[in-house]
Amino acid sequence: MEQALIYVVPALGLVGLIVMAIKSAWVTKQETGDKNMMELAGYIADGAMAFLKAEWKVLSYFAVIAIILLAWSGMSVETSSPVIAISFLIGAVFSAFAGYIGMNIATKANVRTTQAARTSLKHALKVSFTGGSVMGLGVAGLAVLGLGSLFILFYNMYVQSVGAGVNGVEMEKALEVLAGFSLGAESIALFARVGGGIYTKAADVGADLVGKVEAGIPEDDVRNPATIADNVGDNVGDVAGMGADLFGSYVATILATMVLGREIVSVDNFGGIAPILLPMVLAGLGIVFSILGMFFVTIKDDKGDVQHALNMGNWSSIVFTGIASFFVVKYMLPETLSIRGYDFTNMDVFYAIILGLVVGTLMSIITEYYTAMGKRPVKSIINQSATGHATNIIAGLAVGMESTVLPILVLAGGIMGSYAFAGLYGVAIAAAGMMATTAMQLAIDAFGPIADNAGGIAEMSQLPEEVRERTDILDAVGNTTAASGKGFAIASAALTSLALFAAFVGVAGIDAIDIFKAPVLAALFVGGMIPFIFSSLAIAAVGRAAMDMVNEVRRQFREIPGIMEYKAKPEYDKCVEISTKASLREMLLPGAIALITPLLIGFGFQGVFEQVSSAEMLGGLLAGVTVSGVLMGMFQSNAGGAWDNAKKSFEKGVEIDGEMYYKKSEPHKASVTGDTVGDPFKDTSGPSMNILIKLMSIVALIIAPHISQNPHVGSMSEKVEVKKEINYEEGKKVVTETITEIKKVN
């Protein structure tokens, strides 16, 4: 029974990859349009791949250093192994490959979506969403396949081979080594997200400020030297960056639940590993139900509601997953379980999963409300654009700040509710439930930049107006889904970080984190500061790169005669080169802060304070960075999304105080300024927050055995057996069963 189920997990990941390959082949077979369209798409694809190769080269140096340090650290404690370095490498390669899959299909789907838009909105939606689904299935499939396969390997190596128990130090070692996979995934994700975000926004700001505001031409006009770099940026930031981001989130969520599941003594039919297996099984089934949900994403004609179609696909996959989780939980888990003295039932675990799905859905709905066209928040920004640039900025900041209230209340309710159901395991499994439909969430998210690129190619190719109208519909919906995806990602990061935090406390051997202790409170404040300095570095990097881009675009307009008359072709490669160099240079410092800070606190303060351990201080740091990072992520992502759609609203015309305003009007110019400010908010620093808080938690978890106050927590030699009788009904009989609970010696 155990052997059969444990192999089902990587098999489900393989199913996702097979369906991904089928969908990818279908997209590739679609028409690409005329020679000019193919030439422009080729520029975008070449620029995207050039950036990816340059980024991989830089990250390979980081990976080598990390592998050496991990291999060395793995030899110094009993609960780790040098194999953690190999696990890290596999996670890093899978994360990079997930980003490559997304970018490869996106650069093929964009021009095919443009061509499809020449026939109908329905066909354009099908091509763009299928392209997005390739990325979603690729990310989820790789994550489940990699995590499931490595768990089988490490479980056999460290537990089965020595006949050890599930709750002992041997399983702790297996999961500690598996954590290297998550560290590799999150490390690459952070650099990919920050680097891609700097790239895309530097190009976007340059294209907007010089092309739209100064030269008075459309953002995607073929005469704009930064337009190719801008479209490349959509791929490296919103596709490759997001792919690596959610790959890391997906893996970290499952891992955190597995680590906490090890602490549960489970009398089940799977050798006691059911609580550890459950999150992986949910993730695998989530891939299957995401595939089913993708069939619901369709419209009848050009008047169809694209947002409704995407919502139907999303909600159906969530409902299918929720229903299936009932049967999975009843099948896998025993009637009663306990973690750290908190008793719960298998049905409580099911309720926690459902709560996680509900929280994820509510987060998407709330984010959509604050960022979608036609809603009160975006309308408030539009109305205040009438009085100038400053009031537009004020309105956008206010919307962003207000948008944190409901999500935080939902998140807090989800944390308290899931804890009430199943303790800390409930919080973790709620996050796993939320992330189960990642394939669908990412398909919806990746659809946006594909549609954006399609609109850019339509504009640059000077296609008929109705083509651009269709791509604009897709693009506007894509802006909203992108914001919703970021809201979903930050919510999952908060739950995952709490689960990782709980796992860290257990491995580090600390019972509580007392903020009345001055060093712990100091670390809490430092943690709260980290997201601010991280955001500052990311936004400043965009500003510096954008200045270089603006100067280059101005130079070309000034020195290359005939650009405005379509008689000369701009030097697109110069702008691509500026974004590439700037992003690779500027991404290193923010990434280093996330990786090094936990190490400095964990190792730098060992033995410094007699009454306070460095592990407790590190716990304070994690608490601060999690709370501050979640709020910053929501604020920045939602403010940027609202500014963007406020600007786009002017393209169809808006009414302010009874008067209609369109593109090139003064209120529209104010909205362009707001959108420019919001660009690094929503695409660089904001979405990086969820990776920041998870990465720091994973680093803390990996170094926990080295700074533990109770080395080898989990070893059977340091635990005692407690006999406990439980009664339950089986048919008409009451059965009494004696179980053995393993409790840590205090």
TrEMBL record:
Domain of life: Bacteria
GO cellular component entries: endomembrane system; plasma membrane
Stretches that traverse the bilayer: 6-28, 58-77, 83-106, 127-155, 276-297, 309-329, 349-372, 488-510, 522-546, 587-605, 617-635
Record EC number: 7.2.3.1
Activity regulation info: Requires K(+) for maximal activity.
Subcellular location: Cell membrane; Endomembrane system
Protein keywords: Cell membrane, Ion transport, Magnesium, Membrane, Potassium, Sodium, Sodium transport, Translocase, Transmembrane, Transmembrane helix, Transport
Catalyzed reactions per annotation: Na(+)(in) + diphosphate + H2O = Na(+)(out) + 2 phosphate + H(+)
Membrane topology: Multi-pass membrane protein
GO MF annotations, alphabetized: diphosphate hydrolysis-driven proton transmembrane transporter activity; inorganic diphosphate phosphatase activity; magnesium ion binding; potassium ion binding
Keyword Transmembrane: yes
Cofactor(s) recorded in Swiss-Prot or TrEMBL: Mg(2+)
Gene Ontology process terms (BP): sodium ion transport
Site label Determinant of potassium dependence, positions: 482
Pfam family, one: H_PPase
Subunit structure, interactors included: Homodimer.
Protein family membership: Belongs to the H(+)-translocating pyrophosphatase (TC 3.A.10) family. K(+)-stimulated subfamily.
Functional note: Sodium pump that utilizes the energy of pyrophosphate hydrolysis as the driving force for Na(+) movement across the membrane.
Protein name: Putative K(+)-stimulated pyrophosphate-energized sodium pump
Protein species of origin: Algoriphagus locisalis
Lineage: Bacteria, Pseudomonadati, Bacteroidota, Cytophagia, Cytophagales
